[in-house]
Each structure stands twice: as C-alpha cells, then as structure tokens.
C-alpha cells in the first residue's frame, strides 16, 4: 500500500506528496484533462508517487558510545541511571571489527557516529578512530557526532571540517529554561556558551553540516517558542539557512518530571515548525519515527564503552539489546540479526516513515523492546511538514498559526494498492 497526501490549492490544482517515497508534485487537473475527483485519483495511481522507496542495502552503520561520562547533568538522560561511568579503551579492536565487516559484506559505504555521554571528552580517541578508518581509501566513510557543544573550539573544528562531519547539538528551550535544565556539573548555565560555539562553527567551517535539536519536555513547554525568537536575536540572518533545525520530545517514563502528554507535544511541535519556517530556518521535509533503525535492521550496531555490541544506543547498559562482545568468543559480525520485527500493517499510510516506530519509546513505556505505533502523530506531523514545504515554495500562503492548523485539516490521505 502507498499513502499519498493531497491538498487542493486552487480550482484546478492539487499539491500531492507520497508517503512511500517522499515525492512532492503539483497536479494541474485542467491541463491533464482530469474532469473530476475520481479521474484525479486514478491519475495518481499511474504516477511515480505510488512507487515504494527502495531501502539501500549497501550501507554499514556504526555508533560509538565512547563514554558514559558527561560534563552536563540532564535529568532526562537515558544514561542517568548508570552508576559506574566508563570510557572505551581499546579502539583498535573496534576499528578491526568494522574492517572485518567491510571485508565480509563487500559494502563500501559506511556511516560512523560518535556519541556519549559527551564524546568530545575523548577527542583524541575520535581522531584516532577516524584517521585509522579513513586510511581505507576504497571505502566512503561519513562521520557524525552528537555533542552538547560546550567543548567546541577551533582545533576541534579544524578536525571536523577536514573530515566533513555532521554535527548535532541540542537546546532545551530558550535561555531561561535551558539554563535550568541543561547545566554543567557545577550547576553553571550553558545556553550562551553553546550559542557562541554554534556561531563559531557556522562562521569557521564550510563542510560541517549542523543539526540543531530542540528538546521539548514538561519543564519547558510553556514558553518553548521563545527559543526561536532568541535564536533570531543571536544568530545572524545570513547563517540561519546553514542550520537544520528539528524538534522532538524527551523520552522518559510517565512518572518522570519531564513527561509531557501527547496532545501538548503535538501542538507545541507544530507551532515550533511553523515559526522556524517563517523565519527561514531549514526544517525537515518529513517526520520519521525511528524508521528502519538499527534494532530492526541487519547492517548497523553500536559499541558501548565496555566493548559490548548492542542494537540500540539508547539502551546502553541493558543486556536485552546486547548481541555480543568485541573482545570475546561472543563476537559477531555482519549481518546482525534484528531484535525487533518490522511492522507488517500494509494498510498503514505512513509505514514508510515508521516501520514499527521507536522500540526505545515502547521500552520505557512497557519495559519491552517492541513495535511502538505512533500513526496518528506521524500522519499529523507529515501533513504539517508537507504544508510548510508548499509555503516555502510559494504554493500556499498562511497568515498565522490558526490558519496553518486549518490547512492541515484540509489535507486528505489516500491509500493505494
């Protein structure tokens, strides 16, 4: 089945988007001689819009959880309950493991991400791993890092620039809320330092791609929109187009102080994306809930600081996602058996964006790594991002947030065989 979103933009034209391959098109019914709605739908069946996106099986993906040490103390961190903080010691074994996977699979495209804790506490290990892997000239490596941004300096930026890293940094709302939630180990505020380092990154590099994640929680949702206005004040207008901004909520148990109800999450994230598009930030064209992530595929894994091979980096320390150890007889190599099955609901219009959702979200909810269905939210957000794509291209005009919500409600979803 293929899901297609449709919006009538004038008497003769419909804007459409495929939820199976991300294609967007403008259909002129008068020009194509489609006299009625039924003919319009029949036309869609004959187009590329109904074709399924083919997943790429020629890619290996690895996440290095370099350390569980961090220079922040966030209350919602999924590593907050780990008492004995550790750091990867033997990077040679991990590099050898990846090289052997490459030899076994014959795959020549490899993605490597560094996270933590705070990975930049171990910049020397990152450099060593990247330099050793990059020596394999027949392999196309793509490197990325998830960092809180506090330790960024020009020496680190030189390294990130040379290897064309993708960098993700997070903000927990505007400065007041962020500085209450995302403090350093000595309870000092961090917002201004992070913004200063983001501006330095944007000015100092050309090949580094920056993603900025805005975290939403019960402790910052009331004035979360102020983060956009504050970014406007601090980030020069000419640099906004160089920042890819996306919004998400923190994954915590229902009894955690950060837990936020679904209806508030949906409303706040819609408003954030409305504002971000209005002020010319780059935002996602689609909302994907996990998709074909590592716990559901056979070509990716994570190394934890103890050398364990795990299938979900959010579940570090949980043996339920452990599939082996790098330095023992329990070592395993490509292909890696998935732990969670893909969703098989062929009648779901947004299956392409989900494939069963985020197993970690289900894990913290029911203590089981299983399919986590968020069809309603995925449909809502993808309708919204479809509309904002049309706004950015000048196809649709929206005056205010209420108008935005009204247009979203006018989007229809078709399901085709």
Describe the structure.
- The structure is a single chain.
- This protein has 417 residues and is an alpha/beta fold.
- 30% of the residues lie in helices and 18% in strands.
- The protein is built from eleven helices and 13 strands.
- The chain has helices spanning 37-45, 91-105, 123-134, 154-162, 175-181, 191-204, 226-234, 262-278, 359-366, 375-392, 401-409; strands at residues 2-8, 13-18, 24-28, 60-65, 109-115, 140-146, 166-171, 209-216, 243-249, 300-303, 308-310, 322-325, 412-416.
- It has a nine-stranded mixed beta sheet with strand order 9-8-7-6-5-4-10-11-12.
- Helix 3 links the parallel strand 5 and strand 6.
- Helix 2 packs parallel to helix 3 (123-134), helix 8 (262-278) runs parallel beside helix 10 (375-392) and helix 10 (375-392) packs across helix 11.
- The longest helix has 18 residues, at 375-392.
- The chain is globular and about 70 Å long.
- The mean pLDDT is 90.
Indicate the topology:
Elements: E1 2-8, E2 13-18, E3 24-28, H1 37-45, E4 60-65, H2 91-105, E5 109-115, H3 123-134, E6 140-146, H4 154-162, E7 166-171, H5 175-181, H6 191-204, E8 209-216, H7 226-234, E9 243-249, H8 262-278, E10 300-303, E11 308-310, E12 322-325, H9 359-366, H10 375-392, H11 401-409, E13 412-416
The unreliable regions are none
Mean pLDDT: 90
Number of helices: 11
Fraction in helix: 25-40%
- How many strands in all? 13
How far apart are the first and last residues' alpha carbons, in Å? 5 Å
β-strand amount: 15-25%
Summary?
With 417 residues, the protein is an alpha/beta fold.
Keywords:
single chain; 417 residues; four-stranded antiparallel β-sheet
